[in-house]
Write a structure and sequence with these properties.
The strands form two sheets. Strands 1, 2, 3, 4, 5, 6, 7, 8, 9, 10, 11 and 12 form a twelve-stranded mixed sheet that branches. The protein has two domains: 169 residues, DHBP synthase, CATH 3.90.870; 106 residues, Threonylcarbamoyl-AMP synthase, C-terminal domain (Rossmann fold). Strand 11, helix 8 and strand 12 form a beta-alpha-beta unit. Helix content is 34%, strand content 21%. Helix 1 crosses helix 6. The protein starts with 5 loop residues before the first strand and ends with a strand. The structure holds threonylcarbamoyladenylate (TXA) and magnesium ion (MG). The site of threonylcarbamoyladenylate has 28 residues, from strand 6, strand 7 and strand 11.
């Protein structure tokens, strides 16, 4: 892999010529990274086996971890799936375009490489004008995992993508920062009771408001590789920077005191420390390298800042990242905790 990665700048607006050029690369079987509302994706023609295989190669992704297929319309989704449950249609009405990925039975046309050999396929319509234009101009459904090296935090800027994949992909469309910062909610509509396989911005409560009871089909721990799990992606190490990550979970005051103890301890061992702090905690740690997760009562901010902060502190070559887990756990906060727990080498509850 030694590609000349072209960079198309569109500054959040759909600059037609450049997006058409990127679409042409996709049509010809190339790899193009592009912004969505959640994180940057690494796209290939979902129906072209060779193209999809390159995604796995570029990311270093295990071949049994299936991809999400991105479409621009419900009609184009219908070309990929069969036996669509009534409730899946309700979810499409309510949440598409948007950060909800729906797993349904696949049609023959979707190749095994795209679905990791499963007889289901994950589909979503992204809510980003650049992504939609790219899909439209290519005239293809686009398979796209997050555009990071496998195991690294998902990319929320074009810079993140280039750091991981420059020279390994054909092009990237730089459409500025993403708006949400965490990957989509994934729901499996093929089981009797629909199951949420990955939490995201669309919450369990919102989904239940639309289709009734659903179950939680994920946990926040990393599964051993041997275990059979529903969503193959759940068993791999995720979101982990080079540094060791310690999550301190609890209310503001005890989190601050425990973090101070940890810092004293790591200082004795000459470890370089970086902190991911809520705004409320920042004044307690003057002079220590830190990045803000935002206001503790607004978990949307933590969602947007988490992957950026992990990557930022990692680049400062810290040995330890301590994450202040005192932000709210409701709404997207649930999903933020899920990602931090997966990234963490140690979780301390206070
Ligand atoms: O927000 C997002 O979802 C981003 C943007 C680019 O759309 N994409 C993304 O893709 O996060 P990826 O590949 O990093 O995560 C897809 C997750 C994986 O955990 C995978 O195992 C699961 O969805 N998945 C995909 N197809 C599946 C299927 N047929 N059955 C079960 N799980 C599936
Ligand atoms: Mg990913």
């Amino acid at each position: 892999m030694n590609k000349n990665t072209r960079v198309f700048h569109v500054n959040g607006k759909a600059h037609e010529e450049q997006i058409r050029e990127a679409a042409r690369i996709l049509k010809e079987g190339g790899l193009v990274a592009f912004p969505t509302e959640t994180v940057y994706g690494l796209g290939a023609d979902a129906l072209n086996e060779k193209a999809v295989m390159q995604i796995f190669e570029a990311k270093g992704r295990p071949a049994d971890n299936p991809l999400i297929v991105h479409v621009d319309s419900r009609e184009n989704c219908m070309k990929l799936v069969r036996n669509i449950p009534e409730k899946a249609l309700l979810l499409m009405d309510e949440f598409w375009p948007g950060p909800l990925t729906i797993i349904m039975k696949r049609k023959e046309i979707v190749p095994d490489v795209t679905t990791g050999g499963l007889d289901t396929v994950a589909v979503r319509i992204p809510e980003n004008s650049v992504a939609i234009a790219l899909i439209k101009y290519s005239g293809k459904p686009i398979a796209a995992p997050s555009a990071n090296l496998s195991g690294k935090p998902s990319p929320t800027t074009a810079g993140h993508v280039l750091r991981d994949l420059s020279g390994r992909i054909d092009a990237i469309i730089d459409g500025g920062d993403v708006t949400i910062g965490l990957e989509s909610t994934v729901i499996d509509m093929t089981s009797e009771v629909p199951a949420i396989l990955r939490p995201g911005k669309v919450s369990k409560e919102e989904i239940e408001g639309c289709i009734g009871e659903v179950k939680i089909g994920y946990d926040d721990k990393v599964h051993p590789e041997s275990e059979t799990v529903r969503s193959p992606g759940m068993k791999y190490t995720h979101y982990s920077p080079e540094s060791n990550v310690v999550l301190v979970e609890g209310e503001h005051d005890p989190v601050v005191s425990r973090t101070k103890e940890l810092i004293a301890d790591f200082n004795l061992r000459n470890a370089k420390i970086g902190l991911l702090l809520t705004e409320e905690s920042r004044s307690s740690f003057p002079g220590i390298l830190s990045y803000s997760l935002g206001n503790k009562n607004e978990p949307e901010q933590a969602a947007k800042n988490l992957f950026f902060g992990l990557r930022y502190l990692d680049e400062q070559k810290v040995d330890i990242i301590i994450v202040d887990g005192s932000f709210r756990k409701d709404g997207i906060g649930m999903a933020v905790f899920n990602r931090v727990r997966k990234a963490a080498d140690m979780i301390i509850k206070v």
